[in-house]
């Protein structure tokens, strides 16, 4: 069973970019903003997984 429903690497690239931005951020406010983006991405990924599982 495969759960990857997106083009190869797109989520991985986005996660990598978010982590790079997070660690390069110079303020806690900017880190919080990036962390919220990470949460949205995680929510999207979980929604995709649940959608695939419901259709099995």
Automatic annotation (TrEMBL):
* The protein's name in its UniProt record: Uncharacterized protein
């Amino acid at each position: 069973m495969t759960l990857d429903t997106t083009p190869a690497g797109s989520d991985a690239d986005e996660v990598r970019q978010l982590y790079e931005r997070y660690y390069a951020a110079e303020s806690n406010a900017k880190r919080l903003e990036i962390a919220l983006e990470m949460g949205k991405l995680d929510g999207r990924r979980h929604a995709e997984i649940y959608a695939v599982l419901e259709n099995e």
